[in-house]
Amino acid sequence: MTxxxxxxxxxxxHPALEVEGLCVDLRTPSGTVRAVNGVGFQVRKGxxxxxxxxxxxxxxxxxxxxxxxxxxxxxxxxxxxxxxxxDVLRLGxxxxxxxxxxxxxxxxxxxLTALNxxxxxxxxxxxxxxxxxxxxxxxxxxxxxxxxxxxxIPEPRLRARAYPHQFSGGMRQRLLIAMAVALDPDxxxxxxxxxxxxxxxxAQIMRLLRDxxxxxxxxxxxxxxxxxxxxxxxxxxVVMYAGNVVETGPVAEVFSRPRHxxxxxLLDSVPEHAVRGRPLPAVPGSPPELxxxxxxxxxxxxxxxxxxxxxxERPRLTSVGASRSAACHFSEELDRA
Amino acid sequence: xxxxxxxxxxxxxxxxxxxxxxxxCLARLTGNPVDLYLPLSATPxxxxxxxxxxxxxxxxxxxxxxxxxxxxxLDFGTSLRTxxxxxxxxxxxxxxxxxxxxxxxxxxxxxxxxxxxxAAYRPNSLIDRIxxxxxxxxxxxxxxxxxxxxxxxxxxxxxxLPTSGTLGGPEIWVLPIATLLIRPFGVLVQVVRxxxxxxxxxxxxxxxxxxxxxxxxxxxxxALRNSITPVLTVAGDxxxxxxxxxxxxxxxFGWPGIGKLMIDSILQRDFAVLQAxxxxxxxxxxxxxxxxxxxxxxxxxxVRQAVPA
Lengths: 337, 309
What we know:
The structure holds two protein chains of two kinds. Chain A is an alpha/beta fold.
């Protein structure tokens, strides 16, 4: 599979994050499999890009390889990741550590396990300032209290001494976000930041993320499987399937006129489109095992349009309009349908 | 914290009463001391006098009552063997064992934390495999064998270390501590490694790394405190084993500790001393358990909170 470059999305200046042809291999007991295959995208400051896909499609793996946090069983085997112009994949461990926080930061999904259970939260929030700014304990602690105030923790000075289990899920997620934006990074990756929360809290967290993004002019990569979140929050979307990008472009256009049958299937399965008395439309079947991805198109087994050609030739991600690409032999037909 | 401690002490006191009773009963099951201490030719009158002098002619409930009331005053009677107060004999022997066990556990825990953490940081690396092999071997070597071979090689063969006794410089500690150390060290390395591997793969470690924390900060600042709870529990158990199991080492190296005292008392039906020794050991074990619990509470705020005030 050849690495793909996407046409630059609208906006000005140097992209804050530029991923090209990223490949990640995963060592499993039954052999090495490719978890991410030639993924590429760009995000500018102040813009939001959504990585959309089912569990196991490689979206989190993509995020972790950008942040340099892959488990030892996974390895980046190709491509480049430029953060504010620096190719981070070429940096050594200590070079990457210098960027982790001030330049690139990540918000994880389960805030209960993502916060250290035996440390007061104030100390955890102070850590970025201690590591990167060499601040004294006292000064870093003041900064932590400021951050807690900013993300809306009541009585921050008192609560800084509390432990993670003494906070609600929403508050924990706020703390995690505060920690990630502590040093005003250029790029913020949010890996399903609201999955563990109930709906009202989800909305609050998404609003907080949006406000912080505007205030600090960050490029945001939003990893999610939630179509509504993508529609409301993202400027651009990258749809992933079985480790591959199948479609990409501005959210409004992709969602109104999908050019890949997988994207179309996802959009059709939103319950709003359902008719009473009929089963909910769904994409039939399930994604292929990573060890058994077919030779041709990755989506062929579940695709309503699949033909003989799809079994032999893998469609390349090709331009299907301004700032849009899709990896389907029949994207034209899909558009006319 | 104070209420945590108070609750913990009270809940330990109840089983302690049963230990006190159990010791009394078991000691009576080992045989009649009158038969053991007096020659076969002793007259019935001599026997009766001996029994009366040591209270063996009273009924069992009366003996028990005396034992309990005296124990409450920390009076455990006098030794049949030496005529010395049982309490003072035990208290003299105890610090020897305590020093030996304390020193051993301190070294075992510190060593295991270091080796276990190194092994866990890169699972399946060369360091990990060597540590695994060594700790497995250490945990499997019988202590009496190690002690005898140690004496043979370093004491007799090379003449570097004394073979027994408690007189001399720091070198007298080497063989006894080494003998006691190997098993706890081997076991603890495995426990530290296991729980450290778990802690290092926890999401909060990933978050720490995402903040730019270096490996030292990740391991000692974040993972260590989270992985130490099971280590403490096992270390507590192993220490109990050391206080009891010092018997072998104390016998081989001739250290006048509590283990040796207990064996001697059993062999000679020296009830008073045996009771005092077992009781003190039991108290130590309860104290150790409380200590481990207190450490857990200090380390993990969730444990502190789980105990209602």
